[in-house]
Specification:
The chain has 372 residues and is of the alpha/beta class. The chain has two domains: 10-167 and 351-369, 3-Layer(aba) Sandwich (Rossmann fold); 170-349, Glycogen Phosphorylase B (Rossmann fold), CATH 3.40.50. The chain is 41% helix and 16% strand. It has a seven-stranded parallel beta sheet, sandwiched between helices. A six-stranded parallel beta sheet has the order 10-9-8-11-12-13, sandwiched between helices. Strand 5, helix 5 (127-135) and strand 6 (139-142) form a beta-alpha-beta unit. Helix 1 packs parallel to helix 2, helix 8 runs parallel beside helix 9 and helix 10 (280-287) crosses helix 12 (332-349). The relative contact order is 0.12. The mean pLDDT is 93.
Amino acid sequence: MCLRWGAKVRVLHVDSGKYWRGSQKQIWLLSREERRKGIDSWVVARPNSPLFRRCVESSIPTAGVKVRFEVDPIALANYLRLFSQICPSVAVIHCSRAHLPAGLAAKLAGVPLRILWRWLDNPIRNPWQRWKYQHGYDAVITVSQRVAQVLQDGGVDAGKIHIVHVAVDPNEHVLYERQHARAVLGVPEDGLMVIGTVSFLVPRKRVDTLLEAFQILNRNFPSYLLIIGDGPERARLEQLAERLGVSAKTKFAGYRFDATALMSAMDIFVLPSVRDAAPVVLLEAGLAGLPVVASRAGGIPEYIKDGETGLLFQPGDPKDLVGKIEALLGDKDLARRLATNHRNFVLSRCTVSHLASVVEDIYRRLVSSKGG
């Protein structure tokens, strides 16, 4: 297939995740924005997953393929059949489980431009991964300089790597009225400050650090802790809250599809991860007008400038986290200034319109390098 930019270009985004997390939200936003820009953007997702349903609801052409594991011959056959029918100009593979079956299917189907989108900062540990990034795709898009550095440290040519920061759609960001949000969540209106986070509850998110910090914080600043999200760590974290004696002032709200709208219930947003390549939730907190305290881990410092758009603390250090939260609680002017600066940063640098333009420019340059 001859690839030329200018005619109706068909881009196929592939993901196999079963949850609605930051990467799935980015795929949905990007595909929708590409269609607004005149690109024939499609999504292939796990059947009946949140991403699949959201794309169908948004009138994005959507197909379903389930990937059971990375070496999945059935998924390979399904992808190959789908790619041969849809005939995309560009295939963008987002999920690591789909890298092999979807990438190989794209190559066998003769898809002219194959791009791998890397969301995580896991080190490259084996020759197969190194070959995949170096030879299996025409380019690799990463979501932060941190991820790009991990790839280069693993032997991937820097010339193949393109950094594209994550984004949000300000037009879609609607907040509930504060009193309504707290009523929905069961957070008491008793005058206490609400410290909050939105997180998939897995070990690398280190919500346990937040709970430990919250116990210390309450000695001098009586407050309330709101944790929106679910995951395999939830039961352990609830038990930890009990042991720390803070369960009465901690609300585990579980998974909420309207999590961003519920951020209005919070006074301060905290992201305590020890590994996080590019957390979209930080941008959402910025749009919500919340002052942010986040760990100095992964790609987070590329989105939060310490003392300018938020405060950073040492990953895994609850005492350092307490100090940063207390700084905001004790200085409302500082909290307001950081929140305003962060919101302005998000609106100027991290909108989906900007994201789609950057990605389209990458498509164009890659097409040009192939002689299209």
